[in-house]
Amino acid sequence: MVMTRVPVSPNMLQWALDRSGVHEEPVRQKFSKFDEWMTGTVHPTLNQLEQFARTTRTPIGYFFLPEPIEEPVPIPDFRTVAGRPVSRPSPDLLETIYVCQQRQEWYRDHVHHPAESALAFVGSRRLTDRPEDVAADIRGTIDFAVDERRRFSTWTEAVRHVANRIDEAGILVMTSGIVGSNTHRKLNPEEFRGFALVDEYAPLIFVNGTDTKAAQMFSLAHEIAHVWLGESGLSDVSPRYLPDNDVERWCNQVAAELLVPMDILRAELGGDIGDTVSLNELARTFKVSTLVILRRLKDAGVMSLDEFRQSYDAESRRLMDLVERSTGGDFYRTTSNRVSKRLARAVIAATWEGTTTFTDAFRLLNCRKASTLREMGQRLGVAV
Q1: DSSP alpha helices (H): ranges in the chain?
Q2: What is the DSSP letter of 197?
Q3: Section 199-213 average pLDDT
Q4: Residue ranges of domains in the chain
Q5: Which end of the chain is more exposed for a tag (fewer CB within 10 A), N or C?
Q6: What pTM does this model have?
């Protein structure tokens, strides 16, 4: 039996491999003729090409193009590596943004009608506004008091509570560490930590769930600042650096003040200069990472720039040795966190009302059965 081979350009194969971030050695082990494909002496069969497309997470149609295509991030990209813009997004990142855009579009169409008012806080602030004032505005809108955070015993509880408050304010909050529902496609926090899709009726915040819970808190605060500013953006926020970009620098300042108000920090410090023990105590009080506390100590003038950098790097190394354990959690709670409780309630209600198809509901909420939708609805308080 003669196998039909597909004349694919080696350049396209290399582009797909580079784009995916998959290492060549596992590919060679999986495809014995890979080196020959790359020299053009042998072409893959259609079946092999389909397998290669799945391995590299590349739409198979791309391999029939004459040359590689540019795939820019569809929103402003504020990420940098060593001070330079990041040039190539991964398929996982692009797909995550596309899925969130589809969910946002559905929700906007669902809530937007002539009698509906836009959310007043979206785009209500400017870069010239003092971060302290903006942080106070956000804190009042989502009822984000430090005293309330003290009562939570874990960062997980605190992050979940804050995400719920933001969601209740009208912002779709999605936290996930995977692409869709595919547990084999984990998102890389080194590539991005979050993004905001700003819309006056359906603003959306996405937080990379593979990051630590303490780091997720900072990402939430940073992305909500984007909403108040009215600027969509993709971020790899970190308290260590002062971003060159005005938008990112301002959002970082708002996030820091929102999470650790300077007046409360000074009251907590008293005469203490912030040793390792007090760092941990302050982190538990404010439910942020010790890295954020270090940044605020620097802002408060407690530490010099050199002391801050040395302490930050040492603390980063310590945290890298600590792995947060996950028990997996409840399926329905995890799913609603990934897709936003607000969106899930709206989709489920619309499905049972007959204004949205089950097919669209399954796609938007990453599930496959009507019984799953029903159970999720009941847990979220939707009458189905």
Answers
A1: 10-20, 24-30, 34-39, 46-56, 91-111, 131-142, 146-150, 155-168, 213-229, 246-259, 262-269, 276-286, 290-299, 305-320, 331-339, 341-353, 358-365, 370-379
A2: E
A3: 92
A4: 10-63, 80-259, 261-322, 331-379
A5: N
A6: 0.86
